[in-house]
Design brief:
This protein has 386 residues and is of the alpha+beta class. Helix content is 19%, strand content 24%. Strand 10 and strand 11 form a beta hairpin. Helix 5 packs parallel to helix 8. The chain is globular and about 55 Å long. The chain starts with a strand and ends with a strand.
């Protein structure tokens, strides 16, 4: 049971969270979710989720947004804000993408600063790590100056490095020590975009089964990671040191493509038992965004790719270039959620999560003011009380 509090003055309703565990076999262990008509795994959980529902009255919605952003940008000892973001590699540094005299890298830094992120698992960093870390005044680890992956942290990092026998292009790790002394293990990962491309999710001639089979190359990469000794050791100790796995997985989640979403006409109407996301849940991890947004609605789909809309076309070596016939469209065309922040361990609990798709200079469209083809994901984790 839990407590429901109704605040009439604030027009606010708050449900205290109550978290438990399965008494016997889990639903996964008895193949409860094998049926197409099974309810989503995000709903069938041994818990009562913490929720706050309020009726907001404001004459200026933008003022509310600004206030919330300012609040998020302030470090808070009671929570940990974790971001994952693929910043678009070397094209993030290309002078062609300077807007109002601000380079794409400058805008990247501003978005991170405004988010209030404490830890950032960055992908396609490629030479930006030092400048970004200095601008944020953060600690950081990257395996090489021009490496793909980097972990930035407001707090000191220890036990940093790639994972033995795994490519540092795809897997790196670090441990952050928070102000209350709590350590958190972070893995930043990138799964290949090779093989069947994510754009094929729109190809109605491709069956759901064949689409899922196209992720086998990513599943094989993930299996090597999940069976790695360093990872297994830290997961076994997750009740003392919680573990976060974040990054660009280059594939969708089975939680987003279910019988329920198909019948609601969402996410291309596909039912996709994606092996990668299933493996993460079977390893005990929570998909932080979907944990917070368990009800799949048009406004909670959380698509992270792509922020670049129909007004641009991709050309090899050039990146996204404007389509001459339509140079100033609405540049928003997201249709897949492929970037994730997973967590395991009771000392971290996801309480808020959102997708970032805009730079403050432009709230009507994403790209090119937003300097990447991937949206960022930001999750707030509640910390244990000291």
């Amino acid at each position: 049971f839990t407590t429901l509090t109704i605040d009439l003055e604030r027009s606010e309703l708050e449900i205290e969270g109550c978290y438990s565990s399965w008494e016997k076999e889990t639903p996964n262990e008895i193949n409860f979710f094998a049926k197409d008509t099974a309810p989503p795994e995000t709903i069938v959980r041994p818990c009562i989720r913490e929720r706050k529902i309020s009726q907001v009255r404001t004459e200026n919605p933008k003022a509310t947004t600004t206030s919330a952003a300012a609040h998020e940008a302030t470090p808070n000892a009671d929570n940990l804000k974790v971001m994952t973001w693929n910043i678009w590699g070397r094209l993030n540094q290309d002078p062609r993408y300077t807007v109002q005299e601000k380079t794409a890298r400058q805008r990247t830094i501003e978005i991170i600063q405004e988010s209030g992120a404490d830890i950032v698992a960055m992908i396609e960093t490629y030479g930006s790590a030092k400048d970004i870390a200095q601008a944020l005044d953060f600690h950081y680890y990257t395996p090489a100056r021009d490496a793909n992956l980097c972990i930035f942290s407001r707090y000191p990092l220890t036990d940093v490095g790639p994972l033995e026998d795994l490519s540092s292009f795809s897997f790196i790790a670090a441990t952050a020590t928070l102000p209350n002394g709590q350590a958190v293990r972070i893995y930043n990962i990138w799964l290949t975009s090779g093989g069947r491309h994510i754009v094929e999710i729109k190809n109605q001639e491709l069956s759901d089964q064949d689409f899922c089979s196209g992720d086998d190359i990513r599943y094989d990469m993930l299996k090597e990671f999940l069976h790695h000794a360093d990872f297994k050791e830290h997961v076994a100790n997750c009740e003392q040191v919680p573990v976060i796995v974040a990054g660009d997985f280059n594939c969708v989640s089975h939680l987003d493509h279910t019988w329920a979403t198909k019948h609601a006409g969402l996410n291309q109407g596909r039912i996709l038992p994606t092996k990668v996301s299933k493996a993460m849940l079977q390893a005990g991890f929570l998909d932080s965004f979907r944990e917070v947004h368990s009800d799949l609605l048009p406004e909670t789909l959380g698509h992270t790719w792509t922020t670049v809309g129909m007004g641009y076309v991709y050309e090899s070596g050039k990146g996204f270039v404007p389509v001459d016939e339509n140079p100033e469209p609405q540049y928003r065309d997201p249709y897949a959620r492929i970037d994730y922040i997973y967590s395991v361990g009771s000392k971290l609990r996801p309480v808020k999560s959102r997708v970032l798709t805009h730079h403050p200079m432009q709230d009507q469209r994403s790209f090119p003011e937003f300097p990447s083809d991937h949206a960022a994901v930001l999750t707030h984790f509640a910390l244990p009380q000291s």
